[in-house]
Each structure stands twice: as structure tokens, then as C-alpha cells.
Amino acid sequence: MSVQSTDRLVDHAAIRVNQAFIIGLLLLAFVLNWPALAAFVAAVMLLGTLAPDLALFQRIYRDLLKPRGLIRPHVIADNPEPHRFAQGFGGVVVALGALALFGGWTVPGWALIWLVIALAGLNLGVGFCAGCFVYYQLNRLGVPGFRARPIRQE
């Protein structure tokens, strides 16, 4: 499928804002040793995965930052499914980290949360989405539910 023949578009500026909020809030949770903030971030990520129109951090971009010209859109031909998968998987990992923290397992809890911080930072910094990579590998292996194939950039 070529870029010209697809109507599948993703605003990568919204994804970057989402990642920046995730990284910033999780770092703040770590610095303040506040597992409740990590749990909040996990809830936002999971809700945004299940109902993309309710994704809080992306709504901040869509409803506040973009209309005021503070961040310009970067819309490209892309599939939204791998990004939702990555966010959902990250949300599960952050939720498990928060549960570990609430259970007194400090090192494993923060390790899981730092994993998400690192992977979101990798995507924000160099544009490599580890969750998207996993999604496309599962698609390539024919795993049910992973139907979207990479869009060729021509």
C-alpha cells in the first residue's frame, strides 16, 4: 500500500506529546516516590488505548496545544493500531509497576516504570517505537488480531 493510496493517517505530534507527558509524569512519580501518580498515568494510557478519543494527553495536544499553534501537526501515512498496542502494553507495564510499588516491591515496581520511561524516550528521541516493532512482528507471524501491515513510504 503506498502513501498516495491510503487514507490511514497518524499525527505523530500527538504521539510525541503523549510520550512527553508519560515520561514527565513517571519521572515526577519516581522523584516524589508517588506510586499513585504512576497508577494515574497507567489509567490514562489504558483508557486512551481502549477509547482513543478519551486519551487525555493526546486531547491536551488536540484541544489546547495544536489550536494555539504551540505544536504543529506532523501527520503522516501510518497505522494507528501499532501505536495503540504500544500504549496499551506500556500501560499494562506501568500498572504492574504501580501495583508492585503499592505492594512494597519497590525495586521491581520502579524497574518496570523505568522500562516504560526508557522505551518512550527512545521513541520520543529517535522515533523508534518498540511496541510498534513488536506489533509488526506479530503481524508477520500471523498472530490473530494483528492485521495492520507497515505502510510503505514512497
Description:
- With 154 residues, the chain is mainly alpha-helical.
- The protein has one domain (3-140).
- It has helices at 12-32, 35-50, 56-65, 80-102, 106-126, 130-140, and strands at residues 9-11, 75-77.
- The chain is globular.
Task: Offer a few descriptive terms.
disordered N terminus, 4% strand, 2 strands, mainly alpha
Number of separate domains:
1
Low-confidence stretches: 1-5
Please summarize the sheet with the most strands. 2 strands, antiparallel
Please, what is the average pLDDT? 93
Order of SSEs, N→C? EHHHEHHH
Short description:
This protein is mainly alpha-helical. It is built from six helices and two strands, in the order E-H-H-H-E-H-H-H.
Q: Secondary structure elements and their pairing?
A:
Elements: E1 9-11, H1 12-32, H2 35-50, H3 56-65, E2 75-77, H4 80-102, H5 106-126, H6 130-140
Antiparallel strand pairs: 1-2
Helix pairs in contact: 1-2, 1-3, 1-5, 2-4, 4-5, 4-6
